[in-house]
């Protein structure tokens, strides 16, 4: 019986943390929206975090 009670407490904590993280993410996205991922110059979006060699198609992937 103690094992079930412990399991339920752990599930409750995980659920509550998920709700808090979702709230924080929603607030952050409201304050600062994600960049447009269709930027061909690489100034915005995930491409700006790649090394320049990878943006040119080296290693079989990239632009």
Write the layout of secondary structure elements.
Elements: H1 2-31, H2 52-55
Explain the overall architecture.
With 63 residues, this protein is mostly helical. It has two domains: 1-32; 38-63, no CATH class. It is built from two helices and no strands. One of its GO terms (molecular function) is kinase activity. Keywords: Kinase, Transferase.
What is the structure about, briefly put?
The protein has 63 residues and is mostly helical. It has 2 helices and no strands.
Index terms:
single chain, 63 residues, mainly alpha, 2 domains, 2 helices, elongated, disordered C terminus
* Structural domain count: 2
Low-pLDDT sequence parts: 57-63
Note the run of SSEs as H and E: HH
How many separate helices? 2
Strand content: under 5%
Radius of gyration: 21 Å
Q: Sum up the overall morphology in one term.
A: elongated
Tell me the span between the first and last alpha carbons: 57 Å
Which range best describes the helical content: under 10%, 10-25%, 25-40%, 40-55%, 55-70% or over 70%?
40-55%
Largest sheet: none
The SS-based structural class is mainly alpha
Strand segment tally? 0
- Overall pLDDT, averaged? 75
Keywords: Kinase, Transferase
Protein name: Thymidylate kinase
Organism: Platysternon megacephalum
GO molecular function, one term: kinase activity
């Amino acid at each position: 019986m103690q094992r079930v009670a412990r399991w339920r407490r752990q599930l409750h904590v995980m659920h509550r943390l998920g709700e808090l993280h979702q709230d924080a993410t929603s607030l952050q996205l409201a304050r600062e929206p994600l960049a447009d991922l269709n930027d061909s110059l690489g100034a915005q979006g995930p491409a700006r975090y790649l090394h320049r060699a990878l943006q040119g198609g080296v290693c079989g992937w990239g632009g």
